[in-house]
Design brief:
Layout lengths: L9 E5 L4 H11 L5 E5 L8 H6 L5 E4 L13 H14 L3 E5 L4 H7 L5 E6 L9 H8 L5 E7 L5 H14 L4 E6 L4 H10 L4 E4 L13 H7 L10 E7 L7 H12 L3 E7 L3 H10 L2 E6 L13 E2 L1 H6 L4 E5 L2 E5 L1 H11 L8 E5 L3 H12 L3 E6 L2 H10 L3 E4 L10 E4 L23 E4 L8 H8 L3 E3 L1 H17 L5 H12 L8
Parallel strand pairs: 1-2, 1-8, 2-3, 3-4, 4-5, 5-6, 6-7, 9-10, 9-11, 12-14, 15-16, 15-18, 16-17, 18-19, 19-20
Antiparallel strand pairs: 11-13, 13-14
This protein binds NADP nicotinamide-adenine-dinucleotide phosphate.
The site of NADP nicotinamide-adenine-dinucleotide phosphate (NAP) has 25 residues, from helix 12, helix 13 and helix 16.
Length: about 500
């Protein structure tokens, strides 16, 4: 049966430079959050009375000093006066730093309205209990501890801190900043965090790794997460460009599964395994730079993973991790629907992980392959591995091909004006680009203009993601939902936060 869902309090943090803008932003954010944090330290023309009279919902008033990572640089005396005035004018909660004048605030303002905060921009200490104890002694009703995550395992310190606070009946909000700390912002409510800080949908975040409130609710479904929620995720570093959370969370939601797909930016494979030990992951996508290293950690490998010595998908099995490589099938499927590969002369650009899956896939269907890379020694190593030809980048203009595959990141957002191949060299029949953001790269646009037939990286990306869904869930994926999720994530082209 479904475990009880923990009520989640979402606090949308508002960072604007005028009172008017802060109110407008608060109005837009109010449907996503239970609370609105007004970061008054960023407001240049602060009109407290107007702000608190016109607020669209409960407000946490924060005037963060620059030495605590905020933007307030006035005197401490006037900061105290402003905070006390905010409490008097109707701020529902006021923030005061543990390193500042918390005493007069706790004495004057009802304790239940005081959020006592502590920030550590350097690291996440393993044991936060002594800090919690001394912060709790102040009598403040709500404690807030924000640290900096250097690795995925730092989330475990946050989870332990939240567990300890619950035992002590202390209201604690805790999270780790940085991309490695994102799991603490998604799972935090379930770990016992009194509230979860989020950024304004489409707006500026107030801390690194902060997730927009609409994504927390709609993509990660944090209002539904419970102890029984199955964890999945994408392992890599950096994960700034990954669209996997969008697609897989949409698929889990469509299947009605109690599962969440997390961005798992790890400092190493060991770091990931440490997180997995505490919070078992049922399945994972693996991306740069861990695809090769994770092979040795898998209990079993599929034929494709074994032959490419690269794993892009982990599936939890009774004996341990099973490693798969769905990039191979993901690349082949859109091609096989259109082309008979046996007679093809293919040129593959690049000699990295994706090129390896491509060359293996093409060779297994009998295509003739030539690998061209800017580092010819890497091209040679890859070509030798699959008994095929190689050459240097300079040979491209003279190369004869039926199928050209770009397996380099050239042309990927934000460098969308770049292309690996001059338009006049596009003399073959088929051009396939592995880059999927944007869906139509300059290479594909120019290839189509020159009369080539084109295959977008989107087709491959979707095909490999659908295969992952099949492997994790054992049943056909909700294809249309996944396609729609990818399309809406790619429009407008943005560097996605997760
Ligand atoms: P990778 O292992 O880092 O390999 C990248 C390859 O591109 C290397 O050979 C690299 O050469 C070469 N390269 C990079 N910049 C270059 C430049 N300016 N000029 C010439 N060569 C350059 O990355 P990967 O995992 O193979 O991924 C490659 C691309 O495929 C990425 O854009 C990725 O997003 C995409 N991809 C798409 C899918 C999909 O489903 N559509 C799946 C996997 C990958 P050096 O070794 O000399 O640096």
């Amino acid at each position: 049966g479904r475990q009880p869902v923990v009520p989640v309090r979402i606090c949308v943090s508002i960072r604007e430079s005028t009172t008017e803008e802060a109110l407008a932003s608060a109005a837009r954010a109010s449907c996503w959050g239970d609370l609105l944090e007004i970061r008054a330290d960023y407001i240049r023309d602060l009109d407290l009375r107007q702000l608190l009279r016109d607020k669209p919902g409960p407000v946490l008033f924060t005037l963060r000093a620059s030495h605590e990572g905020g933007d307030y640089s006035g005197s401490e005396r006037s900061r105290l006066e402003t905070i006390l005035e905010a409490a008097q004018c109707g701020a529902d909660l006021v923030d005061v730093e543990f390193s500042a004048f918390w005493k007069p605030v706790v004495e004057v303002v009802a304790k239940s309205r005081v959020v006592l905060s502590h920030h550590n921009y350097e690291e996440t200490p393993e044991d936060l209990r002594p800090l919690i104890d001394s912060m709790a002694e102040t009598g403040a009703g709500i404690l807030k501890i924000v640290t900096h995550a250097r690795c995925l395992a730092d989330n475990l310190s946050i989870a332990r801190a939240l567990g300890y606070a619950s035992e002590q009946h202390v209201n604690l909000c805790a999270a780790a900043m940085g991309r490695e700390g994102i799991p603490s912002r998604i799972l935090g409510a379930h770990w016992g965090s009194w509230m979860i800080f989020a950024s304004v949908p489409g707006g500026r975040s107030t801390a690194e790794g902060q997730v927009p409130a609409d994504d927390l609710v709609e993509c990660f479904r944090i209002r539904q997460i419970s102890a029984a929620t199955q964890l999945y995720g994408v392992l890599g570093k950096p994960l700034g460009h990954s669209l996997s959370p969008r697609i897989h969370n949409a698929a889990f939601a469509a299947r009605g599964m109690d599962a969440v797909f997390l961005p798992l930016e790890a400092s190493s494979v060991d770091d990931f395994l440490q997180f997995d030990e505490a919070f078992p992951i049922r399945g994972a996508s693996v991306t740069i730079p861990f695809k090769e290293e994770i092979c040795a950690r898998a209990h079993s490998l599929s034929v494709a993973a074994n032959n490419t010595r690269a794993v892009n998908t982990l599936v939890r099995r009774a004996g341990g991790w099973h490693g798969e490589n769905t990039d191979v099938d993901g690349f082949l499927q859109p091609l096989l629907r259109r082309i008979h590969l046996g007679k093809m002369r293919a040129v593959v650009l690049g000699a990295g992980g994706a090129a390896r899956a491509v060359v293996y896939g093409l060779r297994s269907y009998g295509a003739t392959v030539c690998v061209l890379a800017r580092d010819v020694s890497k091209a040679r190593i890859l070509a030798d591995e699959f008994q095929t030809q190689h050459g240097s980048w300079e040979q491209l203009p003279a190369a004869q091909w039926d199928l050209l595959v770009n397996a380099t990141p050239i042309g990927m957002y934000p460098h969308i004006e770049e292309t690996p191949v001059r338009a006049e060299w596009l003399t073959g029949e088929w051009v396939c680009d592995l880059v999927y953001n944007p869906g139509e790269t300059r290479l594909l646009r120019e290839a189509a203009q020159r009369g080539c037939r084109t295959i977008s990286g989107i087709d491959m990306f979707l095909a490999q993601a659908k295969k992952q869904q099949q492997l994790w869930c054992g049943s056909a994926p909700p294809e249309q939902v996944m396609e729609d999720a990818l399309k809406s994530a790619l429009r407008p082209q943005t560097s996605l936060a997760v």
